[in-house]
Amino acid sequence: MEAPDDVTWPTGLGHTLDFTQTEIVGTLWPALQIHRPFFYHLSEGTDEASRQHYMDLDMQGTWAINGNLVAIHCTALQPSDFGRMTTAAGIVWSPLSNYLLYGKTTEVAAAKQAGVRIALGADWSPSGSKNLLGEIKIAKFVSDNSGGLFSVEELVRMATTTPAKMAQWDPYIGSIEAGKKADLLVVSGSSADGYGPPLR
């Protein structure tokens, strides 16, 4: 994202460590005014200190959240927080890493109900899935154990069209359409449903 081979594609910006309130005003907010995706590890963790990093985005009534912000993790956010996250590009969910590191994961049911875009990410190699197919399987397991929160189609879109839109790369990749770059994985199946049978 930071250095795409094709210079016509939007170049992503990002920050992994927590911004201070001063840095949010002086660094993050100005960066979000540029029409390009900004990936920020937001409120990773489950304690109140982790949630405070989300609360710090409130710059005296103006929130440092807009359609360029791609918020990674958001595990400390409370269900009521996701209404405001609808103005972001979306959130990136890493259920395996979340469960291994913190014993719980992002409140994706609340995020979905609020209308927040949700993409899947494998996080880092020590605690994340080795690839997105593995992460989709974990997300399917979490979904099933939450009463069928997501359909298989929704889970596939979390690794294809949704992140392409969040990254502002949807004119080029993310779906099978004329003029877009081909990036296909072809697997055998026995169902007429392109998103079935259910992932196992």
Would you write up a description of this structure?
The chain is of the alpha/beta class and 200 residues long. The chain has a single domain (13-166), classed as TIM Barrel. It contains eight helices and seven strands; from the N terminus they run βαβαβββαβααβααα. The chain has helices spanning 21-32, 48-55, 82-85, 95-102, 108-114, 132-144, 152-157, 161-166; strands at residues 13-15, 38-42, 58-59, 62-63, 69-73, 90-93, 118-120. The protein has a five-stranded parallel β-sheet with strand order 1-2-5-6-7. The protein starts with 12 loop residues before the first strand and ends in a 34-residue tail after the last helix. The model has no long low-confidence stretch (mean pLDDT 94).
What count of helical segments does DSSP give? 8
Q: What is the name of the CATH superfamily?
A: Metal-dependent hydrolases
What integer value in Å does the Rg equal? 17 Å
Architecture, CATH level 2? Alpha-Beta Barrel
What's the story with the biggest beta sheet? 5 strands, parallel
* Main β-sheet, spatial strand arrangement: 1-2-5-6-7
Taken together, the total number of domains comes to 1
State the name of the first-level CATH class. Alpha Beta
Q: What structural class is derived from the secondary structure elements?
A: alpha/beta
Q: Please count the beta strands (DSSP E, at least 2 residues each).
A: 7
The residue fraction in helices comes out at 25-40%
CATH topology: TIM Barrel
Proportion in β-strands: 5-15%
The 3D shape can be described as globular
